[in-house]
Amino acid sequence: MKLYVWRHNKTYHSHSMIQEPCVNSEFYLDAIAIVAAKSLDEALELLAAQHKGWRTDDLRELEPQVYELDKGQVIFTELRGSIA
To answer: How far apart are CA 40 and CA 43, in angstroms?
Structure first.
């Protein structure tokens, strides 16, 4: 089993990036999808089965981070708005 992580940020999207993938049908600035599956195809099928607007053709254009789930490891940490 693997963990597939996609993150797509459109905060600074401009017309010069018109060919950039759009990973969800909803308006978004930052999209994150995390799926546990045996393969990339299965992960995309699971996202599509939710019917929540995930565009799997565009997700295929982005290389997800892939984590093997057979050992302990840090998967996600986040700091937002920190001030030094």
So the answer is: 5
H/E/C letters for each residue in the chain? CEEEEEEEECCCCCHHHCCCCCCECCCCCEEEEEEEECCHHHHHHHHHHCCCCECHHHHHHCCCEEEECCCCCCCCCCCCCCCC
Q: Phi/psi of residue 56, each to 5°?
A: -70, -30
- The answer to whether 28 and 10 have CB atoms below 8 angstroms apart is yes
Amino acid, res. 39:
S
* Whether residue 16 has pLDDT greater than 80: no
Is residue 67 within 8 A of residue 5, CB to CB? The reply is yes
The confidence score (pLDDT) of residue 67 equals: 96
